[in-house]
Here is the input.
Amino acid sequence: MKLLNYLRKKAFWTLDKLRGEQIKRGYQSIKKIDLMDSSDPYIKKYQNKVWLELKNHACNTTEFYKEFREKKFIEFPVISKNDIKENQGKFMSRKFRKEDLIQMSTSGSTGTPFVCYQDVNKKKRVNAEIIYYSEKVGYEVGKNLSYIRTVVKQNKKSEFKQFLQNQTLLQCEKLNDEGIRELIRKLEEVSKNGSITLLAYASTYTAIKDYAKRNGIKSFANCHIGGVISGSEMLYDSTREAIKKLFKTEVVSRYSNEENGVIGQDEGINNTFTVNEADYLVEILDDDGQRVPDGTLGRIVVTDFFNYAMPMIRYDTGDMGAIITKSVNGREKKVICNFSGRKVDLIYDTSSNALSPHVITNAMWSFPDIKQFQFIQKGKNKYLLKLNLDGNFQRSAEIIATLKNILGDKARIDIEKVEEIPVLASGKRRYIVNEWGK
Here is the structure.
């Protein structure tokens, strides 16, 4: 197996060399900038260069951006998923034929389909991101990458392609005890000839943690996991620590999405994502589109320097967070902190103060009888807590008192007992939902 992995690695980089070494050069660029302080003049010079190249391309080859040729970066509009969905043709570059592009699909946190396109060079840049950031937990080209996810037509790969790339897609439709037992069996099978790198949603790792706790399992000794990567959702500290012990390996959380790539990854500080400054410019804006001071919670807006097929300039990801400068392994780096997930999943207390979703999740840790929960804001002072429970739950009054301590005394909280919190088509569960519309 080691020989086969070595041959895969040699073949990968040889093929990249024959095709112009775009992945290698992207990897080297990402690594070079990641190892610098964010204040290094080289980064500003580099970002100005790639921004001007992107601007010239976008303004000269797309309908949407043609009117901004003379505008400064800060004068470009902030765009959303809906803007792109409603005007997709205007965002597409005339330099590319649609049939030559890679279609990227995501259901989004609300289950609303969203499609964008990447050119081949952008896709290679994302490959470079995945290689570089996965190496931080022990991965190297040729070794196995195993993805736990709901396998649908949009992300399914042929068995032959999985073999060539040494990737494994592990179905995760059911995260009950039976489903997780089968998942662990598959992990044991995949890793029997050598350690693998594991990627999944944070909620999947939480389900694995809860399964182990319910069944008194201290470790999955027959799973040989070299590193664990969590993406797309908040990875809570309790889940991270449990997964570290269960798989006896390091765990990192990655801030990424389907439409862009790897925007950041945490490193030593939980859920504090070091920004990939080689490939993205990240801004934090308020609801009026103005930049907020460092450390202030706001909308995460990303400019993707390398998608020329469908330029995404000042793209509102729908996520919330703040940016600060922090020491990361001896480097002063820009990091995204106070990551709060989807903007629609922010909730508000009875005084209309925005709350990060994890304040509710942290409160639920005191109630181990709860298998799953979903907290929904229905109105200004109206909330619904759906609970999937084991046995007879006798602590409703206590849990309401705990939540009122967070939300305010005027909070009206209803509890509904359910059999299951539904999984979205993406494989994610929404633990915190805002139906109020604020």
Q: What stands out?
A: The first strand starts at residue 102 and ends at 106. Confidence is low (pLDDT under 50) at residues 108-112, 151-155. Residues 41-61 form the longest helix (21 residues). Residues 368 and 390 are 10 Å apart (CA to CA).
